[in-house]
Specification:
By secondary structure, this protein is mostly helical. The chain is 78% helix and 0% strand. The protein has 25 helices and no strands. The longest helix is centred in the first third of the chain and has 32 residues, at 67-98. The N and C termini lie far apart (107 Å).
Amino acid sequence: MEPDARLARLEDEIRRLQMRLERLESKLAVSTGPTPVSRPQPPPAPAPVKAPAPERPAPPLRREIDLEELLGGRLLALVGGVTVIVGLVFLIALAVERGWLGEAARTALAFAGSAALLALGAWLHKRRDATQASLAACGTGLAGLFLSLTAATVLYDLVPIGLALAGAFVFGAIGAALAIRWDATPIGGLGILGALAAPILVDATDNAQSLLFLAVAEAAAVAVLVWRRWDWLRVAAVGIVLIQLTGWVFSEDRPVARGFFVLALFGALNLAAATAYELRRKTGTGTASLFIIGMNAVLLGLLGTWVATGGYFDEDVSWRSAGWWLAGLGIVHLAAGLGLLRLQPRNRTIAIWLFGVGLVGLNLAFVTLVSGVAIPIGWAAAAAALAVPTRAVTRSPRLVYVVVSAQILLAVAYVLIYDAPFKAVAHGDTASVWPILTIAASAFIVARLTPSEELEWQAAADATALAAVAYGTAVVLGGVALACAWSVEAAALALVGRRLGNRVAAAGTLGLLLLAALHSLSFEAPPDALVDGADPFWQAVLALGALAAAAALASRCTIGLFDHDRTLLEALAGTALVYLASIGIVSAFQPGAVESHGGKLSVREQGQAILSAFWSLLGLGLLWAGLRRDLRSLRLAGFALLAVAVGKVFVYDMAALDQGYRVLSFVVLGLLLLAAAYAYQRMRRGTKLVGPNP
């Protein structure tokens, strides 16, 4: 630069600094005039001393964008470089059209012009100050060298493939060296990406020579990119390599061993491009590294499966090689996560991402290598096995929930789709119950391994275990055996919940009792049994008897899950017994159940009349017992049963029974209602005279 130009530039900088200084002085209200002289005044009274307010840091000065510098320094350089390349292309096209130059001559001319432009840019950058024009000249020359090499190899066959790859490596090394020396990312991108794309440029992506060159070029590129910390340039480099790797796999059938070796080699280089970069990062999340790891794992998994199966994804092909490939892929990612976590413990995000990718790979490998009930059993067992290591690695309860829940949900989904779907319930398939029991055991172990302060997750795991046990019971058993089994499980769970104070066990008791009641009302003792009776009656006895006994035991073992839960359980037990007795009465007076008829009336009508009387008498007895013991629950039960009896007599007996039994039902019910009213008024009045009702 000439002395006059440097002096002018220095004056501009001084003028710019002076303007900034004046703006600062105006903001701080600094006065530059002389201080006026005043007469001495008596000293004022001392004021209380206040702590000085903390000084606020001055806001940073914004760097002004110089439009002239942007247009003159950068845009002109960029447009100039593009214009030179376009001009060279037009010149060569014109020379070819008019026959001025042969193939060898115009190729040599392109090489010489590109090299001269690269050398000119380097000389300008070193001798005439670092300017955008010099960088543009270097980039243009470097791009011209790669394009010239492509034309000489693909179009004219003037340069052999091996020599072309070596030349591309040299050009890339020159570009990377200049970029490192000048800290110029665009030049580095041209050199590195151009070298990696050399097999594509010279149309040599399907031979061993190009693969060897690509491996060496990528190793050198990874070293440079990690050293200079050029972040997203790594993504472009790995993307170019994966594109060529995909083309190599799909070009023709490859031996499995050779295909796995090539994929493993480039997969390791791509993984190094992500993890080695993170070793130099102290904190923060490497988004580019996350993208590289995910992209690399997905493509390697697909390409390895293609190589293992020969490209035929059907049932006739052996998937064992693909399964072992996926297993190795998962293990490598898990090992990389452990190594990164050990070497750089403060940057855990990439390590956790590696663990997640490895876990997905191992799950896919497992479902590929095994079959049948072993798949959900393995997935469920993995949930319990991963609970503690995941917590130690991630130090995040939410990630533990995600990992463990995903494993259990995989097992549950497989069981419900293949091993024990809903249509297979009560078919007695003992083989399908083992994965269900494994899910229950795994969820129970996870709940026990969960810290006590994580109550919601612990409750969810326990509930999953209970649901699995209930479903497994339904798969193995059916009919009255299932209803009795659910009742027995409810009783056992009530005892366990009482002993351990577990509220989930108490809720599970109610759930199992509800299942047993619904099953009994659906099959063993449906509501129409109150009209037609139960056939066979012994099944209703077993189902409703077990339900009543389990509900009564649960009412004694309740831990206070909610208000009045004991009353609800007692009501369930009593209702089951009354319902069973009612069905027994109706069943005893069905046609064929007895040998004689009472006069002209059928035994069916006798049973309905006796049933109405039974409900009325029982309601009166409960009311009397509630008044006698001053128990509100018994009194309400008596009122409820009397109301049911009234409804039956007025709705069913009036329409269905013969006139004689109809009269009998109404008379008996009326007398019992009068007796109930008298007893209530008499005994309730005496209770009020004695004292308040507790």
